[in-house]
Amino acid sequence: MKKLEIGNFHVRDIVFGGKTAFEDGVLTVNRDEAKEVINPQGKLKNIELHIVHPGDSVRICPVKAAVEPRFRPDGRTLFPGYTGPVTRCGEGQLYAMKGIAVLVSGHYSSMGDGILDMSGPGAEYSYHSTTTNLVICAERTNEKDLDYTLREEDEFRISAHYMAEYLGKTLAGREPEQWECYDWEEGERQAGERQLPRVGYVMTVISQLAKGINDLFLGQDCNNMMPLLVHPQEILDGFLLGGMGLAGQALTTYDCQNLPMIKRLYQEHGKTIDFAGVILSPADVSDSMKLRNSISTAEIAELLKLDGAFVHEWGGGSNVDVDTFYLLSRLEDKGIKTVGIMDEHIGKVYTDSKADAIVSVGETSTIIELPPMDKVIGDDESLVRDYYYGAWSTHTTLGPSLRPDHSVIINTYALACGGNPAAWLKRAVKEY
Fold it and tell me: What is the CATH number of the domain that holds 264?
């Protein structure tokens, strides 16, 4: 029977010291050793490590990845196909460090990166202003294509995953403080006995961008993938990795590891619903690909005999809006009742009257002003030099996003997870 048990360790603080170890709720990190671990091929240079806490007067930009440190007691790689060989996932025991995250930043921004404030008004928009973060800041040894908005920067993303795996090994031989148990088969048995409605969870994944920005499954780039049926426990266990940085509507690896929606569906599985599985549906550029993906996703849903489905939009914006509404419409045409989960922004290019049940998790259209911070990790000049969703080098009335005193004016899309895509935060939208 496929069962996943996640043992949680609550981390009170992170400090630097002579030996990387975890004792009495404190994670100690050896700087020099960690730098070697995260850069095995020497593709990064000028590596710095920083520790930031909630409430610190710190700005991190650009932010390119977020990962939760974890450990597998059986020795399997933490991220199959990416940091090690392809193996099974979604079963066995897994240890997790709660309350902390590994983030990675750099000097230059690529499309999809975000800005994170640990205090002030910007902090209210990001879950990672509430976690204690170990931040990797580095440059590529081969800085190229700096004028491109889409650059291959996997060196940064994989370094965060290497770091998460390295830190997690400090949990070896220890007993978790608490356990989370995910047993899909037992819930399926109970749901069958009670004849509960079958419900699926459809996730749009980023597949239309460049290598190093698309999402990954088992280490494979999602570009040109077909819709895929996945066991929900695999999503919580390293199967799916975030590709974009922490722009407002981005999916991060940390989100996948802790996805609130999957955890909520497990709570109801066998009680009020029969949770039938997760369908990953790629978001592509051409209309023919979007139609292909919506048709294929609906066929999988029909084979699963779904009565209802949640369609969760990731990486939003006008392009992915089309994919999402195609999915909602196609599933409704199959007689499957759907609920869309997405954030709001001005200028949605496509809607459908069949999509009449939408849950808003936030918005990415507000102009926000951020005060200067005492410390900047990365390079805030990137806000006017490089490409961000929601930042600009010039504006006829507002001026540049970065002001001379290092205060910032941006659209909330530029804030790390500003659209609250994983639905971590409890924010309300008011109509005027």
Answer: 3.40.50
Indicate if 201 and 343 belong to the same structural domain: yes
3-state secondary structure 194-258: HCCCEEEEEEEEECCCCCCCCCEECCEECCCCCCEEECHHHHCCCCEECCCCCCCCCCCHHHHHC
Whether 156 and 262 share a structural domain: no
The confidence score (pLDDT) of residue 1 equals 65
Asked if residue 359 and residue 376 are part of one domain, the reply reads no
170 φ/ψ angles, rounded to the nearest 5 degrees: -70, -10
The average pLDDT across 236-259 equals 89
Q: What are phi and psi of 26, to 5 degrees?
A: -115, 130
410: in domain: no
Task: Verify that 21 and 154 share a domain, yes or no.
Answer: yes
**Does a structural domain hold residue 230?**
yes
Instruction: Give the domain extent around 132.
Output: 3-177+371-392
Q: 307 phi and psi, to 5 degrees? A: -95, -30
What is the model's pLDDT at position 235?
Answer: 96
Mean pLDDT over residues 24-30, rounded?
Answer: 97
- Taking the C-alpha atoms of residue 126 and residue 368, their distance in angstroms, rounded to an integer, is 14
Strand 44-52 and strand 367-370: the pairing is unpaired
Query: Does residue 345 share a domain with residue 202?
Result: yes
Q: What is the pLDDT of residues 261-304, one digit of tens each?
A: 999 999 999 999 999 999 999 988 888 999 999 999 999 999 99
Residue 378 located in a structural domain:
yes
User: Is the torsion defined by CA of 192, 193, 195, 200 positive or negative?
Assistant: negative
Q: Summarize the confidence of residues 361-365 as an average pLDDT.
A: 84
Quickly list DSSP for 375-398. EEEE-TTHHHHS--TT--S--TTT
- State how many domains the chain has: 2
Select the more confidently predicted residue: 70 or 244: 70
Q: Please say whether the beta carbons of 293 and 282 come within 8 A.
A: yes
Say whether both 125 and 188 belong to one domain: no
**What pTM did the predictor assign?**
0.95
Q: What is the pLDDT of residue 417?
A: 86
Is there a domain that residue 65 lies in?
A: yes
- Same structural domain for residues 210 and 243? yes
The average confidence (pLDDT) of the chain is 92
Cβ contacts of residue 23 below 8 Å, gap of 6+? Answer: none
Residue 190 φ/ψ, nearest 5 degrees: -65, -40
- Calculate mean pLDDT across residues 52-68: 97
What is the torsional sign of CA 167, 168, 169, 171?
positive
User: What pLDDT is attached to residue 422?
Assistant: 86
